[in-house]
Specification:
It is a single chain. The chain is built from 4 helices and 6 strands; from the N terminus they run H-E-E-E-E-H-H-E-E-H. It is α+β, with helices and mostly antiparallel strands and about 170 residues long. The protein has a domain at about 30-140. The strands form 2 sheets. It has a 4-stranded antiparallel β-sheet. A two-stranded antiparallel ribbon has the order 1-2.
């Protein structure tokens, strides 16, 4: 089955639409919301795009972080915009903030999830944010306290004993 379009005006309009769409979308920052209900937020290229779902409703926003900030101060400002917390530069390297920056996802104390996308001109994620996370819930717990053991408390694992071989049964 073939679909034919008659006349050049339709082709010309379709071409203009595609070109205009490509130009307006170029350089923008887009954040995709949780599904359901789904959706997305599109911001200017120098803004943080944020999208959260609360009680089944999508809330999207765009916010700008000054590019005059450098190093940890920039990441502190990003975390403040995403979480609403007053994050200090000394605190930005905490495990919970590293995870937020890596995953581009923040979960508040009520379980509401906010996804975000960084501005196009944002610096690369710093090396300290790429380091392995020291997550307390991934460590084995001690029997006495229920808290993760320190490295000195962990016992080396012993190999499992091998049962002795039995002679073959007579036929």
């Amino acid at each position: 089955m073939k679909f034919h379009v008659r006349g050049e005006p339709f082709f010309l309009l379709a071409t203009i639409f595609v070109i205009v769409s490509a130009i307006t979308a170029h350089g923008q920052v887009k954040c995709v919301c949780a599904d359901p209900p789904g959706g997305s937020v599109t911001c200017e290229q120098n803004q943080i795009a944020k999208c959260s779902v609360r009680e089944g409703h999508v809330f999207g926003s765009c916010s700008k972080v000054s590019r005059d900030l450098e190093g940890d101060e920039f990441w502190t400002a990003v975390l403040h915009e995403v979480t609403g917390d007053r994050v200090k530069p000394a605190d930005v390297r905490q495990e919970k903030y590293k995870m937020i920056l890596r995953e581009h996802k923040y979960v508040d104390e009520d379980g509401n999830v906010t996804y975000f996308s960084l501005p196009k001109d944002a610096p690369d994620l710093p090396d300290w944010a790429k380091e392995p996370l020291d997550l307390w819930w991934q460590k084995p717990k001690t029997k006495e306290s229920g808290t993760p053991p320190s490295d000195s408390q962990q016992k080396p694992k012993k190999p499992l004993p091998v049962p002795p071989l039995k002679p073959p049964l007579p036929r």
